[in-house]
Specification:
The chain is of the alpha+beta class.
């Protein structure tokens, strides 16, 4: 999610664990391949002992780049590609939407870095219940509900 102001830009990369609601957020100045790869490394550090990680994501060029794909494979991260133009299917995109509405919209911050830090803190300090709710994962219509209930084994 880009945060802009005075030609400055910060990008938040983030992921939410579909079972525990644990979140990982990385603040970057760009959204290029190197930044996406830094996020993959941060994600793997957070889940150091886990087996393969499955990451729901869009088809942004930084995600589909061969170098990013190769790194993901080395880090044991598999991408699950969401359909184009379907942010409603991404739980993390739902959190970004709430963040924009509650934290970033029509607000002034001391600096772009302060706003980015506040945004990241908001995502990371939600309780698991709040994160599940704001990400739309408690909805009876959440599209991955059956998979999580019936097939997904805890890691």
């Amino acid at each position: 999610m880009p945060i802009t102001g005075r030609n400055a830009k910060r990008v938040l990369f983030g992921a939410i664990d579909l079972q525990s609601a644990r979140r990982v957020v990385l603040i970057r100045t760009r959204a290029g391949q190197a930044d996406a790869q830094a996020f993959l490394r941060a994600l793997r550090r957070r889940y150091r002992k886990a087996g393969w990680l499955w990451l729901l994501t869009d088809r942004a060029s930084a995600h589909t780049a061969p170098q990013t794909q190769a790194l993901a494979d080395r880090l044991r991260i598999r991408f699950v590609w969401l359909p184009r133009q379907a942010p409603e299917l991404s739980p993390m995109d739902q959190l970004w939407r709430e963040l924009k509405r509650l934290i970033a919209a029509n607000r002034q911050a001391a600096s772009i870095d302060a706003l980015a830090a506040e945004a990241a803190a908001w995502v990371l300090t939600l309780t698991p219940q709040q994160a599940f709710r704001k990400a739309g994962m408690l909805s009876k219509r959440f599209w991955l509900r059956k998979l999580l209930q019936n097939f997904w084994r805890p890691t």
